[in-house]
Structure formats: C-alpha cells, structure tokens
Automatic annotation (TrEMBL):
Record key words, sorted: DNA-binding
GO molecular function terms attached to this record: DNA binding
Matching PANTHER family: DNA-BINDING PROTEIN, PROTEIN, PUTATIVE-RELATED
Annotated protein name in UniProt: DNA-binding protein
Annotated coiled-coil segments of the chain: none
C-alpha cells in the first residue's frame, strides 16, 4: 500500500478531482482512508433515493471514505452545517470545495478495481482483481 496525501483547493469538484487524480497517478485501485475540509455545495444521495440532494451552505466534512477505480468511485461522506446538523450519504458530482479538503488516499498497486454490474444486486459494484507484479 502506498499513501498519497492530497489537498483540494477552492472551487474544485471533490469527486471529479479524486477520480482524475487516481487516473493521473496510473493507479488501478485506491481507497480514500479519510478526508476533512469544507464545502460550499454538497451533492449527497441519501439511502434509497435515486437523485442527490443539494446542500448549499458553509459545510464541514466530518468523514469521507470510499473506493476509487479507474472507471469511477464509490464514496460516502458526512457533513455538518453552521447549526451543527449532520447529513450523510453517497457522494455525487458537484461537491464544491469551499476553502480546502485534505484527503489521504491509499493506493493498492497489487490490485485492480473496476465497477461492473453485479447480477445479484443489479447495481454497478466494486470488482477486485489481483494485479500481477510489474504490470
């Protein structure tokens, strides 16, 4: 496992930046170990809901974790607003960094992740394969 710390800057889209970073690093498998920071917009899909819910406020990221494959990510996040209310769910595109986001990526060079339709769930799920050394 290789640790890769990352800092996002104001205006960046959190999910797009993570997915692009993993591709630019040439990684085939990564996990977001943790993330903290602030957002001005959060797009969170709540459990059992098809569309994300947009939150526009000064938001603090309390937790951020998930897996990142070259063909997409599966991320969950909890955020709090200025009144201390906490919201959490699946991270969609459009989560915009307000001041900073600090993330620790764990790159897994011995593995290859992909997102494929799982016949049992009917959803795009994580498939994990061993990656031969040197390839």
């Amino acid at each position: 496992m290789q640790a890769h710390p990352l800092r996002l800057v104001p205006g960046q889209d959190l999910r797009d930046t993570l997915e692009n970073t993993v591709r630019q690093l040439g990684a085939t498998a990564a996990f977001v170990v943790q993330g903290i920071g602030s957002l001005s917009v959060a797009q969170l899909r709540f459990a059992g809901i098809d569309q994300p819910n947009e939150l526009r406020a000064d938001l603090e990221i309390l937790t951020l974790a998930g897996s990142v494959a070259p063909d997409g990510a599966h991320l969950h996040m909890s955020v709090s607003d200025a009144e201390g209310r906490v919201f959490g769910g699946h991270v969609a595109r459009g989560c915009i960094v307000r001041t900073t986001v600090e993330i620790l990526l764990a790159l897994l060079p011995d593995h290859a992740f992909s997102r494929e339709t799982d016949p049992q769930t009917g959803f795009m799920e994580l498939f994990i394969r061993d990656r031969p050394r040197g390839g």
